[in-house]
């Protein structure tokens, strides 16, 4: 497969290594310094584009992929307020896009367990629940996209929580959440690739579901697998369409 990498930072470079290792070719790499190369004509040379760029650039990158008719895998987070609008445009123009807040198999297994747990916990009102995420200090968005997915799936399953709220710890602007609000606590610590925890606590005990990424390898391999899956398909997909964990 011929791949265009939109965003050539920590993730773009790791994805390149995995893509080459699986026999693919990188035909275009875009970062802030060569943005003039991001044209429909150049993108048309790729079978698929993979975007791990920034919340401020991802929408324009998606538009250019749509103009080129090039399927795009979007790993960038921090743009989900525009999800419905992008989905509509993708389907109207007969394009293809697959997005995911987290492409690692481990986190997708974690998502499944989180959905099951949230529903189970309707019967146990003595437990309160909280989400915690820890990432490196260069991260531009908070809460993390993964934490948003986790929180929204808890809201879908657990009737006593109505909306999520976020505290970026250390800003001095932390709020105290109401009982029907699901708190996502964000921490920024040097060099942490990504740790997510769901904590159910009662007066007598605590249950934690926790995923710790040891490196970016799982995200990068998952993104290449997603690009292989999307190649040749039309439509709007999420990473959860790739994994089938039904039990
Ligand atoms: N879904 C998932 O599994 C994962 C998602 N992510 C998400 O991926 C994104 C990237 O993360 P990461 O690689 O760590 O970030 P980096 O900051 O390391 O890399 C971002 C890259 O985007 C480039 N960039 C800036 N503006 C543009 C533009 N207009 N067009 C194309 N590229 C641009 C930067 O260029 P320059 O260096 O020149 O500034 C840089 O190369 C984040 O949103 C992060 O949350 C991260 C890990 C896993
Ligand atoms: O910015 C990161 O690094 C990561 N971002 C994603 C997110 O926002 O959830 C995924 C992963 O946790 C790493």
UniProtKB/TrEMBL annotation:
Gene3D superfamilies the record matches: Dihydrodipicolinate Reductase, domain 2, NAD(P)-binding Rossmann-like Domain
Single GO biological process annotation from the record: diaminopimelate biosynthetic process
Pfam family membership, one: DapB_N
Residue ranges of every copy of the Dihydrodipicolinate reductase N-terminal domain listed in the record: 1-102
Keywords: Amino-acid biosynthesis, Cytoplasm, Diaminopimelate biosynthesis, Lysine biosynthesis, NAD, NADP, Oxidoreductase
Chain residues that bind (S)-2,3,4,5-tetrahydrodipicolinate: 136, 145-146
Statement: the UniProt record of this protein carries the keyword Amino-acid biosynthesis: yes
SUPFAM superfamilies: Glyceraldehyde-3-phosphate dehydrogenase-like, C-terminal domain, NAD(P)-binding Rossmann-fold domains
E.C. code: 1.17.1.8
Subcellular location: Cytoplasm
This protein's pathway: Amino-acid biosynthesis; L-lysine biosynthesis via DAP pathway; (S)-tetrahydrodipicolinate from L-aspartate: step 4/4
HAMAP family noted in UniProt: DapB
Protein name per UniProt: 4-hydroxy-tetrahydrodipicolinate reductase
């Amino acid at each position: 497969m011929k791949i265009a990498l939109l965003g050539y930072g920590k993730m773009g470079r790791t994805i390149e290594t995995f893509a080459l290792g699986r026999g693919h070719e990188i035909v275009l790499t875009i970062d802030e310094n060569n943005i003039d190369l991001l044209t429909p004509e150049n993108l048309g040379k790729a079978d698929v584009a993979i975007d791990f760029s920034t919340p401020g650039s991802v929408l324009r990158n998606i538009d250019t992929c749509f103009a080129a008719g090039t399927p795009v895998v979007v790993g960038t987070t921090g743009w989900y307020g525009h999800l419905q609008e992008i989905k509509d445009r993708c389907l109207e123009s007969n394009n293809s896009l697959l997005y995911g807040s987290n492409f690692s198999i481990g986190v997708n297994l974690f998502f499944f367990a989180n959905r099951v747990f949230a529903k189970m916990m309707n019967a146990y009102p003595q437990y309160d629940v909280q989400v915690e995420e820890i990432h490196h200090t260069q991260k531009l968005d908070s809460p993390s996209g993964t934490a948003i997915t986790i929180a929204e799936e808890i809201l879908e399953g657990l009737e006593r929580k109505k909306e999520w709220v976020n505290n970026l710890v250390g800003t001095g602007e932390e709020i105290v959440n109401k009982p029907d609000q699901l708190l996502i606590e964000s921490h920024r610590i040097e060099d942490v690739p990504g740790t997510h925890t769901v904590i159910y606590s009662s007066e007598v005990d605590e249950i934690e579901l926790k995923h710790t990424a040891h490196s970016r390898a799982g995200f990068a391999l998952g993104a290449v697998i997603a690009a292989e899956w999307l190649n040749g398909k039309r439509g709007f997909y999420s990473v959860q369409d790739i994994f089938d964990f039904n039990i």
